Amino acid sequence: MTTLSRDQVREMMGEVLAAQGKELPANDDAQLSEIGFRSLDFSELALRVEDELDTELNFDAPGLRSIETVGDVLTFIDQLQQAS
User: Fold this and answer.
1) Tens of pLDDT along the chain (84 residues)?
2) What is the pTM of this model?
3) Alpha carbons 37 and 4: distance in angstroms, whole number
4) In which element (H, E) is residue 27 found?
5) SS3 69
6) Which residue ranges does the record assign to the Carrier domain (predicted)?
7) Which of 24, 58, 60, 71 has a CB 3.0–4.6 Å from the CB of 28, allowing a cystine?
8) Domain annotation for the chain: domains and CATH numbers
């Protein structure tokens, strides 16, 4: 299966934010709440990743609740790709 690098996922995350006039900071420690990245934005990012990979990722709600930073999102997507 094809996988996306953290940089590719980060770029997609930046596109989701840019569509709302927001900017993705360079710092992976940036809090999602501070940059305005909401659950709907995460859903859009997940759909873009799935479209790019042409596969469905299996999300679990408890794992989603622990996501607080840009880096957490990138790590979570990495883990989903490894599990598929």
Assistant:
1) 689 999 999 999 999 999 999 999 999 999 999 999 998 999 999 999 999 999 888 877 677 788 999 999 999 999 888 887
2) 0.90
3) 20
4) none
5) strand
6) 3-81
7) 71
8) 6-83 (1.10.1200.10)
